[in-house]
Amino acid sequence: MRKAILAVMLVFCMLLPLSGAVYAAGMENFLPQEEVSTIQFQDVPEGAWYEEALERCCAAGLIEGTGVDTFTPEGSLTRAQALVMAVRVRMIYYTGQCQLEESEPWYQSALDYAVVRKMVDRDEFDDYDVPATRGEMAHFLATALPVEEMGQINAVFFLPDVTEETAYRQDIFLLYRTGVLTGSDIFGSFRPEEEITRAEACAILARLAFPELRRDLDLFLPSEMILPEASLAAPPGGTVTAQEETALYTDLFGFGVLGSYTRARLNRFQPTEGKKVLAVRMVLENPTASPVSIPTSAFEVYWGGEESVRPLADNGYVSSQLPELIALSSHQITAGVLLYEVPEEEETFTLSCTIRYSGGTAAGIYQVLCQPEK
User: Fold this and answer.
1) What is the pTM of this model?
2) Statement: 230-370 belongs to CATH 2.60.40.1240
3) Are 274 and 344 in contact (CB under 8 A)?
């Protein structure tokens, strides 16, 4: 009975704003009425990556400190705290204010509000006092705003660590496609099972409430692990050259470049002056009955003509979705993206894979000519 009374009181209070002002539903309700400085938080360093997000969220009433002058940016959130943040977003959007009644436990009125509006199910979680995961935060926020405020700006259909078995998979993809979630690395990894920090939650809240902060993503990731249909046998010895979308089959393994492109910058990565990013999407397969291992360093990118030879230290290698040693069991297939820093004036590149004998002599050089999209 007490919970029912509290729920009715909550709805009643939302219908009667304390100030007497009447708000129309809309994103403009998040615009701050006054400036708020993060200087009040002694544990937020000047220039912190989340500083703007924190100022906006505090001014909009979406987040609070953990004390008079502390924010605890690296601290975790409980499920209850994460849910309350999502409820604040929804209440402010529709009413211009967030007025949660006191309840026992303290988050009960927020939970009642969320259940009525189908943000969560009543018995979805048996404990709201444990730390929230990043996936759970995405779940709470995915229904905080109406669908018309969640326009898709990114074509994201694959993430490195979000599979068919990942909890809240659809909520995570929704927020990536709207530019609210941006991933924790240049490949868009989300880390759904890890606990979310207060700073991370603040950044996500800001992008949700302020669409101008939402980000375009360039996640050049393999959506399918299938080698190109066109293939070329590459026996050992000498140099074999192919084009993109052609599979090269050596005696040990097969690989193919599905595509490539260049960008002035790529998500979180900013190349050095005079350079741009080259992304090469590649699939590798072990067609044999025996395991095989290929070091990622075997793949190098050259420019300035097919005959150009550059040492690895000057090859511009940046990062890879693939491990340093790609170990493939019998008939296993894997895929990933190789990233390089290359001169911004260059237009064509050669991805070269050199297989060596145990003594270091080259057993074969297998090249793919890349003409990346811009």
Assistant:
1) 0.75
2) yes
3) yes
